[in-house]
Amino acid sequence: MEFFENIGSILRTIQIRDVIDILAIALLIFGIFRLIRETRAIQLLKGILLLLIVYFIASTFNFVMLSSLLRLFFEASVVIIAIIFQPEIRKALEQMGRNKTWRRYLSIFTKPKKSDEWENSVKKAIVDAADTSVIFSRSRTGALIVFERETMLSDIAATGTVVNAETSVALFGNIFFNKAPLHDGASIIRDGKLHAAGCILPLTDNPNVDINLGTRHRAALGISELSDAVVLVVSEETGVVSLAIGGSLERNFNREKLIKRLNELLLGEYSDEEKSRLFRRGRNKQ
Question: Are 186 and 146 in contact (CB under 8 A)?
């Protein structure tokens, strides 16, 4: 009875803000586990839990040196966790930054509203990239073109050569010609212009990626996992045209489908059929 009375007295002291605080922590923990459950970080987390068990055993049996060493480790755990989980923390913060709800309220502090000139430039870049992909697909010429969106890729552009030129089929042809010095890297399209070429992209570390995919496709998936970029890939072996978006690969595009999909992703332009489908999806969610 005394035990239940103690629980009752604790419950009577709980206020609304305490409930909100508990729910916030629960959502934070749930979000962390959801973020790392399919990554290498889950194995690191298991290792940390194992160290906690070892520390508990060492403290119970009074293993002075072992428990002291582990205590020092856990005292510095904030810095250690930040180092170990740096990729996952960065990914989570980038996802928060790309959230449409937040962007709606923060848009006045970020990029200005896009002009008609910007839109025309992006449309031209899309058509030039699509025309290039058709030629490259027939000639089995590999290509990797990154369309920058909200996430700025200046650090990636710094690994290549800054160009800042209007896009054209001839320019893409010169860059990705297999004897050209920049053909092995990626080209970055920023605001409808070829910003940089010969850039080095991070490879995906997803263990579930098809083993038949080469380095070019793995690089496309890698940068799409770390940013909101849309990456156009032309396979040198098969000539298949693909898009990497959010860590996944969409394949087998022809010119018309590629232009339509890039317009959707970069300009938010949807066909009447697509608009109707998206409207029905929104109604179903409600």
Answer: yes
For residue 261 the two structure tokens come to 């999909």
Alpha carbon of residue 265 to chain centroid: 15
CA nearest to 264, candidates 240, 245, 284: 245
With beta carbons less than 8 A apart as the criterion, state whether 113 and 238 touch: no
pTM equals 0.65
Cβ(91)–Cβ(35) under 8 Å? Answer: yes
Please list the alpha-helical segments (H only) found in 177-214: none
Residues 86, 89: Cα–Cα separation, whole Å: 5
- pLDDT tens profile 28-48: 878 777 766 655 666 777 787
Question: What DSSP designation does 227 have?
Answer: S
**Given the structure tokens 């509203």, which residue do they identify?**
113
User: Each residue of 51-92: pLDDT tens digit?
Assistant: 889 888 988 888 888 888 888 887 777 777 777 667 667 766
In which residue are the tokens 């103690």 written? Answer: 6
Residue 88 one-letter amino acid: E
- Tokens 């923390």 sit at which residue? 89
How does strand 193-199 pair with strand 161-166?
Answer: antiparallel
Q: What angle do CA 31, 33, 34 make, to 5 degrees?
A: 60
Each residue's pLDDT tens digit, 260-281: 999 999 988 544 444 444 444 4
Distances (CA, A) of 96 to 78, 93, 123: 21, 5, 28
Q: What is the DSSP letter of 261?
A: H
